[in-house]
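STRUCTURE REQUEST FORM
Protein name: Peptidoglycan-binding protein
Source organism: Nocardiopsis codii
Requested output: structure tokens
Priority: standard
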Amino acid sequence: MSADTALAPGDELVEAPTRRRWWRRLGWLVPALVSFLSLCVAAAVVVWGEPSPPAGGEEPRPEATAPVERTTLEREEELDGTLGYAGSGSFFARSEGVVTWLPEVGAELSAGDRAWEIDGVPTVLLRGDKPAYRLLEPGSRGEDVRRFEQALAELGYGGFTVDGEYTLLTAEAVRRWQRDTAGMEVTGTVDPARIWYVSGPVRVTGHEAAVGGSAAPGTVLLGTSSTRQVVRIDLEVGDRGLVTEEDEVTVRFPGGESSTGEVVSVGTVAEAGEDDGGTGTESDPTVEVVVELTGDNVDFLDRAPVTVEVRGESREDVLTAPVGALLALSGGGYGLSVVDGDGTVREVPVETGWFTDGLVEVSGDGIDEGTEVVVPE
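Status: completed
Returned output:
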């Protein structure tokens, strides 16, 4: 129909009703699209979570928080050590014959105890710091006589004067001691092969001869040590400042038990480092550090690897936060989530210092003693 064509009476315009029917047919799509978009939003919430609050908005106050504290930090280090016994030495025969008795390995011996037997005759320990070297009998004089008389008196035998002169009274006391010692010949004189001086209790660490074997003067019979348990540490020279004599430490044994200890010596002679795993390169030179146990000994261990916890340098009057409160910032470095008085949380960049004992030294704008920070659970 042209624009200037008039409608005759009774004629109908066909286009209009045709367009209305088209919109009515599309009307069902609207609720369908709304439902589809709602499902998309729900899925997004499930996958990505609720949308973040607007910038500057308040977050709920976190439950796990801790205050920044001002304190002293002490540097703690764990060092590898080896548990053993202090000192080492040997007992050797002073006479010729057949070895007829030896103490068990691990046995602890002190003054008055048998050290060994040759041809059934015992050699007895006495307290002293120099070896016996001659026969003692009435009329003998000297410092070795005084040393023997003192040792005999410490075993409970008296009736003579400790004066360096071997008198008849000394001889009578010797006879009583010999009668009380099984296997000892009663002579009233002292054969140097029948006594062995020690400065204190000793521990048998090994047999160097066998019962039934032949011995001659100078034959090594026993390996010995003191009865004091110690820990030896090969400390790299660069770490020597970690410990000084009389420092208190904690020694942890295999199995979780622990004991206190005291540093008794720090070596002054550096030993060359060993080949590091066969790579051809040597580890750093080391000095020997000896720690003596001041708590309970570990009787069931003769030798074992241990861990020694030492405290070295300290930092006084520093601000600290729990290590778990640190955040890795997207731009690098670390920060803390600081909780303001109104409950809002904001990230604050910080500089970190020492890490020790679950704490970290921190500093930064807005970080002060008492500042509350979030510690994620």
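Reviewer notes: The first helix runs from residue 15 to 26. The first strand starts at residue 65 and ends at 67.
Form closed.
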